[in-house]
Amino acid sequence: MAITLLNPPGLPEVAPYRQVSIASGSKLVFVAGQVAWDADGVTVGEGDLAAQVEQCYLNLATALAGAGASFDDVAKLNVHVVGWTPDRMPALLEGIARAGARLGTTPVPPATLLGVAALDVPEHLVEIEAVAVID
C-alpha cells in the first residue's frame, strides 16, 4: 500500500478521520469531482444528503478501480456541500458510513470540507474529488 494515514501528536484526533497521509507510491491518480449520478446519469437521492454522499463515494470507488486503485490508495479528498452548516454533519457521516459498509472500507483519508453556493445541477447537494497514489 502506498498510503499511510496518521494523526501526529499535537493535532486533534477526530475518529476515524486522519490529519495526514504519507504517500510512497510512484503514480498519482486524480479523480474528478463525483456527484450523485448513477451509471445512467440519473441523480440518486434527490434532497437526501446522506444518499448523495453514499453515491459519490460509490462513484469514486468505481473511478479508482478504473485506474487500478481503491480507497486504501486515497491520499486526499475534497468535499463540496451545497449550503453547508454544521448541523448537516450527521447526514454527511451517515452517507460515508453507508458507503464504507457497502465498499468494505473506512474511506476517511485527510479531507477538506467546503460549503458552496451551488453545483453543476440544482439536484446535486455534494461533490467529492480524490487524489490517490499507487505503486
TrEMBL record:
InterPro entries: RutC-like_sf, YjgF/YER057c/UK114. It holds the Pfam family Ribonuc_L-PSP. Belongs to the RutC family. This is RidA family protein. It comes from Nonomuraea longicatena.
